[in-house]
């Protein structure tokens, strides 16, 4: 019914950019680590001089620094979870998934130490530089655990396969390196192979029993205010208590209207949920009209007025996928509430029905 793209100007673009840059960063770190392992084993493309492949390795690390800055800054600026600036560098101080965000902070600290010492290599003793550089091998698995444990997209099949591919790339490079390491005894080589093979197996078992399970968000330490926004309000300036609704799922009945001005169109969804209580939801989507029907959404906003509360929730549309509209609404005194409208079908030419998920998700909390 509705085809869409998330608006770049939408404040939630910071959240998507932070998550996306983190995934790209993991891939770049994995590829660069695999390249470093290959270089240490004496590999290089036949037509490339040694300094050229080392330059690629060094520049990839610098590019990773840029992506790391984007990842940290965008997530810090986004107001949805409030990680905190200290938490980017100091492990275990974040109110949001402290252990898993803490692993990210630890990986960041190690990675920055490796980058800084590499830039200052000429001024350091070789033994000191080599000792710090070996920490890159510790930074990477910590980053993998951070990505899987903290990532809100781990349960998405393509994302998890991508994370496993990053893991597999480095493991494959280590296996090849161990096979060619003439200075290792047979027992040492076999022990290295066992560790390299057991690593992805352990990650799979842990992921299946943890991050891929429903309810992982709560287990991982996501604050209740982010999970459901129940009781997550801050006090108003006057010192009174904020009016916040508890999470609920309810049926939705409404109407859809479309107004057009040239190629631009505005699609309005207006209805009630829970039905018959007087609570109302107004969703406005703006975008470009398509020849095949529907619109490609570029921006949008929503307002939810609760009949049993003086609170009115307003905020942007953060995603549209077919008949699923995701919103991030808030009152003047409350933290953002996750709201999802799932349109299940048309009850008439302009009528729709579906389900409204307020402070919860149709997929269960992740």
Polypeptide structure, described:
- The chain is of the alpha+beta class and 366 residues long.
- The protein has 2 domains: 212 residues; 134 residues.
- The chain is 43% helix and 22% strand.
- It is built from 9 helices and 9 strands.
- An 8-stranded antiparallel barrel has the order 2-3-4-5-6-7-8-9.
- Helix 1 packs parallel to helix 6 and helix 2 runs antiparallel to helix 3.
- The N terminus is likely disordered.
Please summarize what this structure is.
The protein has 366 residues and is α+β, with helices and mostly antiparallel strands.
What are the defining features of this structure?
8-stranded antiparallel beta barrel; elongated; 366 residues; disordered N terminus; single chain
List the uncertain runs: 1-11, 228-243
Order of helices and strands: EHHHHHHHHHEEEEEEEE
Number of strands: 9
Radius of gyration over C-alpha positions, nearest whole angstrom: 25 Å
Helix-strand layout with pairing:
Blueprint: E1 3-4, H1 13-40, H2 50-77, H3 98-119, H4 126-133, H5 136-150, H6 157-180, H7 186-209, H8 216-219, H9 224-227, E2 248-261, E3 264-272, E4 280-289, E5 295-305, E6 312-321, E7 324-329, E8 337-346, E9 351-358
Parallel strand pairs: 1-5
Antiparallel strand pairs: 2-3, 2-9, 3-4, 4-5, 5-6, 6-7, 7-8, 8-9
Helix pairs in contact: 1-2, 1-5, 1-6, 2-3, 3-5, 6-7
